[in-house]
Amino acid sequence: MKKFINKIEDIVTEMIEGQVLASPEILQHIPNTKVIARKNINKNKVAIISGGGSGHEPSHGGFVGVGMLDAAVFGEVFTSPGPDRILDAIQNVVGEPGGLLLVKNYTGDAMNFGMALDLGKNLGFNLEKVMITDDIALEGANLSTGKRGIIGTLFVQKIAGAAAEAGLNLLEIKRIAQKAVDHTASFGISLSGSIVPANGKPGFIVPEGEMEVGLGNHGEPGLRREQQKSADECAEMIMKNIEQYLKLQKGDEVALIVNGLGGTPMMELNILARQAIKILQAKNIKIHKTFVGSFITAIDMKGFSFSVIKLDAELKKFLNAPVVTSSMVGN
Amino acid sequence: MKKFINKIEDIVTEMIEGQVLASPEILQHIPNTKVIARKNINKNKVAIISGGGSGHEPSHGGFVGVGMLDAAVFGEVFTSPGPDRILDAIQNVVGEPGGLLLVKNYTGDAMNFGMALDLGKNLGFNLEKVMITDDIALEGANLSTGKRGIIGTLFVQKIAGAAAEAGLNLLEIKRIAQKAVDHTASFGISLSGSIVPANGKPGFIVPEGEMEVGLGNHGEPGLRREQQKSADECAEMIMKNIEQYLKLQKGDEVALIVNGLGGTPMMELNILARQAIKILQAKNIKIHKTFVGSFITAIDMKGFSFSVIKLDAELKKFLNAPVVTSSMVGN
User: Fold this and answer.
1) I need a labelling partner for B290 at 20 to 30 A (CA). Which of A75, A283, B259, B272 fits?
2) Which residues, other chains included, contact A240 with Cβ-Cβ below 8 Å and sequence gap of 6+?
3) B189: chain A residues, CB-CB within 8 Å
């Protein structure tokens, strides 16, 4: 297997250790847990907790820090963390003002974060959760769990984290985070599955000359398989779906993420960003900020997605607020 | 070919456009050139210019901005930019205080940047250059051009850029940049070659179960092929070479880059970073800062490298100085 790893069973532990060792000024590993918390835990504000299966690095550990997440909880690769692991995060970072769980909408995460929330409440913690459901590719499909949470998660974590840092109360932050979810649409395409270390083979094979439209973040099948198209054609197809979903109109203001899924070089992401921005500009939609990079990945998948958030004054203010994490710095 | 591109001949142009469109507050494309310059050109300080073949994104366009590069010049994929392209950069960003060319040591770059320097001098520009030679893997080999320049380039660009921003004169900055080169050692390993779009196939094939030690940044052969080892064993082999080269001793202070070559997920980079840091800590070598990410890539190569710079007070001051680029923000 063409991977730089040690024992497969140690991957998550070693990855957590590595991330914290590399950013000791920002992060700490809570001993005997699968939780990365910010270096200086502040229990005088609402705590923002997120997490999920591993394999999406730098998410979510890379987004722990002042102005974003208070803690990230890690499951095994592409496996939701159990309620006990999530409760470890709650018990270590949530104080009097309470905690908000930001949960990508997958069956396992919905269940485990839901159970952890109940367990935490029973212990006296003031907790709320927001389900992230930004993937519009499968909207029409018959999914009992509803839309999936993918790369728009980054917007929700950033905005909720800034609102918490500003001292807002739990229900206000929940309202703003839910608004961020409702204003965000994401859609992706892949040219390959990702290689889960325990399997050593791709989760699915996309034949040469084809592409998977509406990819899942864990190698779930997408919406449909079609002939591979040019970067510009892919960008046009995705932006058309996003524009329709968000009902974008001339004069609207948005932020854009062009996200690589781990095996897509920046060369291609820049080419895709070019067309996405041109399409929005041609419709006189104002782009407040563009993020291009591999923020929430599927290990080494050759794929990308666009996420667009339609901004209002409140969302824009919190998107702009300063943040200090290992994978998103600045303001 | 599993790539999100349009016409192969448009890759570099579109990539430049995309990068500038995504960061209009930081970057500008100088019309009719293959040059990305910082948005607000400041000719009252020494200009720092770097560049080389494309395919190493986010380098070098991602490192243009206040506190780092004034301009980046792009050649075609894995092809040095001609002297005319480099002269475009010189003519657009160099003022009275002069300009410093930071050149990765490859035959093509050495020749083209050298010619551009002579052409620029004939036009009356005050120019100097520093050759970057941080790759210690092939040190003993019979290379007529000397050691290659690889990922340590990031340290040299950051430090020279900060010195220029601080208002130092050209010869002082040249001295400091050369010191940064002399204090830096890099070494890499790969598990695959990269797929150049014009070829559609990897530049070299590494059989399953083997690895290329001392990889070249463009898919040049490395030092030797050997049996694939664990992440920790790879880290140990590389750090041993780097420690010996830099004569690192207890109490020394360093900065570390764990760089992915485009096809290496953050999962693996974090695991590699963990061991690199543990090795340095075990020898009581102080790590001032660690950068983990894919900064200077070889398109989609599955590979990584470590770069270590031995810091003194001067190098540390300039490494710490604020910087605002699209791929390195903060201080």
Assistant:
1) A75
2) none
3) 4
